[in-house]
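FYI - complex with calcium ion, inputs then prediction.
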Amino acid sequence: MVSDNRSDGATPEASPEKATLADASSESVVESASPDVSEPQDPPETSPTEQVVDAPQIVQHSVGLTYQKANGNRWVSGQGKVSSSQPVVASLKGPPAWVVSVPTPGGPLWAVALEEGTLQGFTLSGGTLTPTTLNVSTYPAGMPLALTATKGAVQVNPLLPNQSKGTHSVRLPNFQGFVYIDQQGDLVLWKDKELGRLKLNALPDARILVDERERLLLLTGATTRYGHNVLGDGIEAGSISLVETKPSFKVVQTIPIPAPTAVEGISPIWVDVDKNGTREILVTQSNASQGAQLVLYSESGSLLAKGPAIGLGNRWRHQLAVAPFGPGGEMEIVDVLTPHIGGPTEFFRWAGDKLTVAAEARGYTSHVIGSRNLDMGVAGDLDGDGAIELLIPSQDRRTLGAIRRSAQGASVVWTLDPKSQLTTNLSAVSSSQGLLVGAGFSDNTLKVWGVK
Ligand SMILES: [Ca+2]
Ligand SMILES: [Ca+2]
């Protein structure tokens, strides 16, 4: 099952011993230039006041993902003026399903996958969204897309042989190849041809996370033992697999989830929650008796901490982001409890072996039952006040609300009115004007906020 074919041209990684926890999408910084092409590093995990706008940089390689970051964390660095702007609007040829964006020298490029499978592209420049031609125009209906920008040239990540249509391929920037999940659940390493294959029984819609060493983390051990069926199918994960791609393509750690429990999600969040220099793995585990619970593992598979369980089966919670949300810049994990029935947005802190709710806010949600879109939320300093907001929709998806922590708790501090219903993920991108947030709506539009 294991192939070892990574010797052909894989670029040696710079200073692997000094690898930071920067996003794999932004490691290939080559030179300074105009701010319009700056790609945020994974935000430094310090206090919010220290993670202000990054120095303008050209990056050789950046990615556009529905879940924002290659580590699965829906937290973007930089600052924006999203709260005080009217959206820039582009008309679409049909209802949109997914939106992704990347910085380019000519301004941020937005790609929209329509529900029936057409792709449309736009470049945001001079305050307008101008249609632009993408390298592909049709795409499997419902399939999420990803973009890779290399030296300003943007490509939709390719469809590879026998690929699962539940998820997109992921580019490995140093290797200059791709990994993808095939229709048998195998994880395939590809560079012009198949170079390796791991029989992991991956979820058909697993998002493949990537770190700066081009290691991969994904949900595997597909099982139907927890038939809640709210995330697009009845298949959930019985294990979490950590895979290295060099020097060989192999599994380095499997974290089993003992039955009857399963991971109910499509990807972990893979960040250094306690800032000790190593990443943790955050997943949502569920079973029929106690419902969903946040669980934190080490990369070696140790169970580090658990949050409270709901105490009732068929109740989900939606993990969204890990960021210094706390009023003093403390790292907190945010989820939405029971998003389908109007539960609260919860901010957790990790202490000892527990994840404990520090604050919560009501009235906003993050997921439509039955959908594979788990990316209707994004965190960042969207209004430029130095504190991080979580932007998520109202229950009817006709308002977007920004939830911010304070010493008193958490509350909605401003809202956006799209005058239509959110039908896609939210997509944030860095630009010369700071952070922008875009999404697709039921009036067949792409709307982008934050443009001055
Ligand atoms: Ca850590
Ligand atoms: Ca803010």
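The chain has no helices and 35 strands. Confidence is low (pLDDT under 50) at residues 1-59.
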